[in-house]
C-alpha cells in the first residue's frame, strides 16, 4: 500500500496492542451462526474486504494464498463483491496479464460503518465486564496474538507480506 492510500484512509484511534485485529477475530466468533442485520456480505466476503483494506492492490493469486482458498472460489467471491459495488478489478501496473483488487469508496464506507457499529457493540459489552475480567480478557487475547505469531498456522489471518515471502 502506498502513502496515498494510508493517508486517505480515516485514522482509527491508536491501538498499540492490536485491539482492532482482536475485535475482528471476536466479531467472527461472536457472529458465527447469528444473523447480522447490517451484513450484506458473507463471512468469507468480509474476510476479502478486510484483506483488501490492509493489502490494497493485491492480485487474485495472492488473495487466494492469504485466504487459503482455491482460485475459482476466490474469483467467485470477488465477482459477488464487485456486483455489490464493494470491489473493483483494475489492470496491474506491473503485469498486463494480472488484475489488481481494490476496494471502492462504497466498500470502504461499508467497512467504516461496520467497524463503528461493531466497536460500539463490543465496547458496550467490555464496559459491562468487571475490571478484573477485562484485564483477563486483554491478557488472554495478548497471549493468543503471541501464540498465533509463533505458530503462523492460522489460515486466512496471515498478511500479504507473509504470503509473498513464503
Automatic annotation (TrEMBL):
Single Gene Ontology BP annotation: response to stress
Alphabetized InterPro entries for the sequence: HTH_MarR-typ, MarR/SlyA-like, Tscrpt_reg_MarR-type_CS, WH-like_DNA-bd_sf, WH_DNA-bd_sf
Gene Ontology molecular functions: DNA binding; DNA-binding transcription factor activity
PROSITE patterns, per the entry: HTH_MARR_1 (PS01117), HTH_MARR_2 (PS50995)
Residue span(s) of domain HTH marR-type: 1-146
UniProt keyword terms in alphabetical order: DNA-binding, Transcription, Transcription regulation
Domain of life: Bacteria
Protein name: DNA-binding transcriptional regulator, MarR family
Amino acid at each position: 500500500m502506498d502513502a496515498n492510500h494510508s493517508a486517505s484512509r480515516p485514522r482509527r484511534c491508536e491501538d498499540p496492542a492490536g485491539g482492532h485485529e482482536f475485535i475482528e477475530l471476536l466479531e467472527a466468533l461472536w457472529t458465527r451462526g447469528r444473523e447480522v442485520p447490517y451484513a450484506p456480505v458473507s463471512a468469507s466476503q468480509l474476510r476479502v474486504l478486510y484483506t483488501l483494506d490492509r493489502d490494497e492492490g493485491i492480485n487474485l493469486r495472492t488473495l487466494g494464498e492469504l485466504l487459503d482458498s482455491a482460485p475459482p472460489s476466490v474469483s467467485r467471491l470477488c465477482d459477488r463483491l464487485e456486483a455489490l459495488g464493494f470491489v473493483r478489478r483494475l489492470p496491474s501496473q506491473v503485469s498486463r496479464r494480472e488484475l489488481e483488487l481494490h476496494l471502492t469508496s462504497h466498500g470502504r464506507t461499508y467497512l467504516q460503518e461496520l467497524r463503528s457499529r461493531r466497536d460500539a457493540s463490543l465496547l458496550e459489552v467490555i464496559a459491562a465486564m468487571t475490571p478484573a475480567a477485562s484485564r483477563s480478557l486483554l491478557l488472554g487475547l495478548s497471549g493468543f496474538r503471541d501464540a498465533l505469531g509463533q505458530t503462523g498456522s492460522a489460515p486466512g489471518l496471515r498478511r500479504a507480506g507473509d504470503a509473498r515471502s513464503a
